Amino acid sequence: MNLQAPVRVLIVDDSAVVRQILTEILSRDIGIEVVGSAADPLLAREKIKRLNPDVITLDVEMPRMDGLAFLENLMRLRPTPVVMISSLTERGADTTLQALSLGAVDFVAKPKLDVARGLETYAEEIVGKVKAAAQARVRPLARAAATKVELDPQVAPAAQAAARAGLFRTTDRLIAIGASAGGTEALRVVLEGMPADAPAVVLTQHLPASFSTAFAERLDRHSAMSVREASDGEAVLPGHAYLPPGGRHLRVIRDGARWRCRIDDTDPVNRHKPAVDVLFRSVAANAGPNAVGAILTGMGDDGARGLLEMQQAGAATLVQDEATSVVWGMPGAAFKLGAAQETVPLERVAERLLALSRVSR
Q1: Is the full-model pTM beyond 0.85?
Q2: Which of 18-22, 97-101, 174-178 has the highest mean pLDDT?
Q3: 4-aspartylphosphate occurs at which residues (predicted)?
Q4: Among 83, 51, 96, which residue's Cα sits nearest to residue 212?
Q5: pLDDT for residue 304 is more than 80
Q6: pLDDT tens digits for 243-279?
Q7: CA–CA dist 116, 198 (Å, integer)
Q8: Which end of the chain is least crowded, N or C, by CB within 10 Å?
């Protein structure tokens, strides 16, 4: 007998077809109750007050009213876990990243064609993300949207301190980071704390293929480092952060005295492509004790075994703590596996990565 109350969900989408399909998909799960739906944010506002849902699914690209403005008001006045239903377009990617910066927990990709069949294909993912969102930590929004303010790298405190100390003149350190739900903002926070001459960083964030370019550009705007999509065979250099291009795995390979990026189109791992485990295992094999590994907020357990392999190869390892994680799935799995030597709040992750990179092992 399931004694846990079902997750109460409100569906907000201007499409009657999408509302119906999402209601059918979510209602099939015994752990979810769809308490209502709304065709626009104005109707949604009244239903939120009356129904008090645990999770809201939101189409942020609705006509008649800006979904982002609605989301911003919601997170300021009544913080509620939100899963976006986003279109797989360039504009949709940018809107989704803005919504994540405003506090949305996660998103589900809405296909451009044959929406009904497409959403059914993602039924398991939709149910999983709604349930995870119900356990997420959402906080009142107390600032303007991050995308509206461009960071001046000259004023980043960690960057100033590291630059003054002249700490990073070596090419023999590598930082590897993995993240999923909540990770787009967590990675922004970490990279904002990195100086322009930090050790090279390799990243894997679970994202649809069409989102990777917009995400790399967003991170690049917010970091003193140069953040880019990796190309196959390019050298891994200090002061640069590398993301896998859309829908591909990123590995690190050794080429004599240096590392290079290897991009491949092999099968998904842990149902993800790119997968954190793929990156971490390559770092363990080719960088060993010269690497530092970190897992940030995310759903599931991708990266936990790879982080353990990094630790066993001599790398320093850490995970984001539960209190500052949106979802403590991936970091929690690594912690339970014994793969993390430290558990660190998000605002201190950059500082610890830099400090651990300076330690000779």
Answers
A1: yes
A2: 174-178
A3: 59
A4: 96
A5: yes
A6: 999 899 999 999 988 999 999 999 999 999 999 999 9
A7: 46
A8: N
Which is nearest to 133 in space by CA: 104, 154, 156, 153? 104
Q: Which residues is 107 bridged to in the sheet?
A: 84
Cα 76 to chain center, whole Å?
21
Same CATH topology for 7-134 and 151-358: the answer is: yes
Pairing state between β 82-87 and 55-58: parallel
Asked if 105 contacts 78 with a C-beta cutoff of 8 angstroms, the reply is no
Q: What is the pLDDT of residue 67?
A: 84
Token output for 355: 């400090």
CA–CA distance, 195 with 337 (Å, rounded to integer): 32
Q: Give the CA radius of gyration of the chain.
A: 20
Domain 7-134 -> CATH class: alpha beta
What number is the average pLDDT over the span 116-120?
A: 80
Give the total residue count for the chain.
361
> Which pLDDT band holds residue 142 (cuts at 50, 70, 90)?
low
Half-sphere exposure of 227 (CA within 13 A, CB side): 23
Model pLDDT, residue 3: 62
Does the pLDDT of residue 149 top 50, yes or no? no
What per-residue confidence (pLDDT) applies to 141? 77
Q: What is the mean pLDDT of the chain?
A: 89
Angle, in degrees to the nearest 10, between helices 157-165 and 346-358: 10
- Cα(238)–Cα(43) distance, integer angstroms: 51
| CA 90/CA 215 separation, integer angstroms | 11
Residue 202 pairs with which residues in a beta bridge?
176, 242
Can you give the pLDDT at residue 90?
Answer: 66
At residue 157, what is the residue type? P
Q: In what order do the strands lie in the sheet with 32-38?
A: 32-38, 7-12, 55-58, 82-87, 106-110
Of 64, 5, 76, the closest CA to residue 35 belongs to 5
Tokens of 222: 């917010």
Domain boundaries, given as residue ranges, for the chain: 7-134, 151-358
Superfamily of the domain at 151-358: Methylesterase CheB, C-terminal domain (3.40.50.180)
Q: Which of 275, 292, 208, 282 is nearest to 247 (CA)?
A: 208
